[in-house]
Structure formats: structure tokens, C-alpha cells
User: Fold these one by one.
Assistant:
Number 1:
Amino acid sequence: MHQWTTHSPEETMNFSEQMAVYLQPGDVLTLSGDLGAGKTIFTKGLAKGLGIREMVNSPTFTIVKEYHSGRLPLYHMDVYRISDDEDIGLEDYFEQDGVAVVEWAENIPSWLPDDVLSVVIERVNDHERIITCTANGSRSERINEEISKHERTSH
Ligand code: ADP
Ligand code: MG
């Protein structure tokens, strides 16, 4: 488990932008945290780091948005309105060659692969967020190790 504190939306975006460098095809990130915590901001940084040129917005109403203009495809999901007993076919995305990012992943535990990087964002106050990254297997552990090395050397 690794923890980071950010003090602005820009800092959160910088963090996830750096993380994007280490992502490989098939990686899955789950994003948890209250409404307004910064899950979509985090995803915007990730998209930037992947070199995606399109505008990334919250897919709350469409559930999934795909972006194909970067180094890897990005599948951005928001399952706020979905429950675990609905089969909406999301598991297909986890087997493709892109990176899947799932906002409100706690709503669909049985559809997720085991090895996900779990990212929890907690709101401390208007500007401060605590980001906790927990690995659940070797694939997500690699991302966590890489980003922690990077952060240590950049400070
Ligand atoms: P979520 O997707 O979790 O509902 P959003 O990313 O849409 O949240 O919104 C996060 C809000 O919090 C934005 O209005 C953003 O400007 C604000 N914010 C303030 N400080 C931070 C920070 N350190 N990191 C991320 N967002 C922040
Ligand atoms: Mg959101």
C-alpha cells in the first residue's frame, strides 16, 4: 500500500499522469471515493499521460467511454448507477489490450478481475486529497512499485 497527499486538482492530475507511464495493456484500476473526491480528475491525468488528445469527461450516463488516440486504449467506466447483479458486459473490457479505469468499482465486485490496482481518494478539505494505492496481485504491484520509485526520485 502506498499513500500520497495532493493539494490541488493539478497535483492529482500530475500524479496520475506519471502513473500512466507505467501502465501496460490489460491493466485495471479501480477508483473509489465520495462524489467530488477526484476520481474523474485522476482519470483525466491518466489520459493525458497516455497521450490521449480527446477531452475526458465523466461517463456517468454512458457508463463506458473509450479513447483510442493514446499509447494504449483507455476504457473509462463509471458504474455509479450499476449494481452487482446486473450483467452489462463490462468484463469484456478487462480482457482487451487497453487500460480499464472503473469509478465506483465497489458497486460491481463480482465483475472485476482479481489483480486490480485499487485507488482510494479521500477528501481532507477543499484542496487536499489523500490517495491510497493498494495492489492486489503481481501486475498491480508492479505499477505501485514503479510510481513510488518515481515519486521518491522526483522530490
Ligand atoms: P469524482 O469523479 O470523484 O466525483 P471529480 O474528479 O469530478 O470527482 O471532482 C473533484 C473535484 O474536487 C473537482 O471540482 C476538483 O477541482 C476538486 N479538487 C480540489 N482539490 C483537489 C485535489 N487535490 N485533487 C483532485 N480534485 C480536487
Ligand atoms: Mg466522477
Number 2:
Amino acid sequence: MTPKHFLDIASQTPEALRAILDEGHRVKAEGRIRTDRLRGKTLAMLFEKPSTRTRFSFDLAMRELGGDTIVASGSEMQLGRGESLADTATVLSRYVSAVMIRMLDHGGLTTFAEAAQVPVINGLTRKSHPCQIIADLITIEERVGALEKQTLAWVGDGNNVLATLLEAAPKLGFRMRIATPPEFAMRPMLIDTARRLGAEIEVGTEPQGAVRGADVVITDSWASMGDEDEEERRHVFRPYQVNEELMKVAGPSAIFMHCLPAHRGEEVTNAVMDGPQSAVFDEAENRVHAQKAILAYVFDRLG
Ligand code: CP
Ligand code: NVA
């Protein structure tokens, strides 16, 4: 039987996403208690790139659900010496109940998942970050309300986090306004797909136009993992900083979100990060609740 992977938002049904979000709210309301819902299950967590939130939140989620975790980095495994992803997936499937992987190459993730006989969870690739978006949507529902009424303004890089929001928009009915520098725009194919599936998406290059009247203002680092060497980014993205002036255009009821880690003074100022409109630390906390819901989904234990 094909295991139930969680590799992207695009391949989930709106009903499955709704059930995951509901489970996230439910486990948050339940509190940070220990249960035995995943007793006997072990999650392997493989990291090719650094992580704070994804690593700690999955580890805590498994422990609080009564399961166990094993963490390793690609370089300390035989993967680093050329063992294939498929063989690694086959071996790990004999050891653990599910695998969460962070690797930049999305194709590598799908190769791993195709060979795995246990569920595989995408802990971030260059293409997408679906676990982050589950936490973000939970945060929006609790801070501003029903998703289908919201307009999300994305300001900054056309990156993996934005791509994942675009996968979610048509399934959950929120609108998006995007402002990126032309040289770092989102791939037109992803915008077209979201629109074709029914999402209302406005695309431009001007931050003030994007955030005017928005319910949520979102940004991310100007250079994602793997892009840090592109020095010109610092210059190109400067007009895309989320600061108090830009938040004033959005209005006082808008919230500010960022998946973190933030580069204070670059994509966001201290005043916005630490101000009353900031939801960034709720968003980080919600990673724990979101991971519990995603684990419940892959193990067929929702609700
Ligand atoms: N937001 C996020 O995925 O954070 P980490 O890189 O710390 O896991
Ligand atoms: N877009 C960022 C997200 C980090 C959590 C990156 O890929 O580095």
C-alpha cells in the first residue's frame, strides 16, 4: 500500500487540509499535554540544512504524542558518501514509522518518497514548505478569522514559502496580493495554476499597493537557504522592507507574519517584529500544533 506522504499542499484535497487545520486548533486547545496517540511510532528527522523551529517542533510533537524521534544530518549519514536516496529510504522504512526530511532539492525528496514504504513529510525544500503553511493558516484563523474572508499580502522574494501559499489559496479560498522585485518574481506557472484553480491573485512589484487594505502582511528573508551568496539581493530588496510606514498602509487591524528566522533591519524592522501587529511568535509556537496535526494525518489518526 502507498504510504500517506505530506510532500506539498497542491496534492492535498481541500477537505484534508481543513481536517488538518481543525486538528491543529483542537490539539492547541487541548494544551501541551502528553498523550499516547502515537505510542510505538518513531519519526526519523533528516536535515540537509539547518533548522530550529522545524526540528524542535517535530521532536516535541512526537514526544507529546507518545512517540519517539531520531535526528540525523545528511552529512553524518552514508548519504554524504554517496548512498542513494532510494536505498536510504528503503532501509529507513525497515526501521522507523515515518520520515521528515529537509533538503533543498525537491526532486530528491520525491525520489526518497517514491522508494519509502512509510510516510514522508516535507520539512522544506527549495520549492515548498508545506508544514510552515499549515502553522501559518492556523495562526491566521486564530488571529484574524475565517480564511475565505482574508487578503494576504506577500512582500519580498518569490520563494518556497510564497509558492506554498499559492498552492493553498485556491483550496482554502483566501486572496493574495504579491509584490516582488521583477528579478525575483514568482514563477508565472504557479500564479497561473492558482488562478486556474479559482484563486484571486494580484501580482506586482510595488509593496504599498500590495498591502493596502490587506488583512495579513507576510514576508520572509531576502535570501533563502542556498541563495545567501547572491550579494545583489541586499540592494534589490531594500524597498521591500516591512516597516512601520508600510504597516500603516495595511491598516491597524492587519497582522504581520514571517516564518522566521528573521533578519532584523533587513526584511523587517524591530518595531514591526516586536510591535502589536506581529504574529510571528504565535506562528512559531503553532508549528508544534501544526506538526501534531500533520503527524495525525500521515498516521490516519485525525480527529
Ligand atoms: N520556519 C522554519 O522552518 O524555521 P527553521 O528553519 O528554524 O526550521
Ligand atoms: N524561505 C526560507 C524559509 C526558511 C524557514 C528558506 O528557504 O530558507
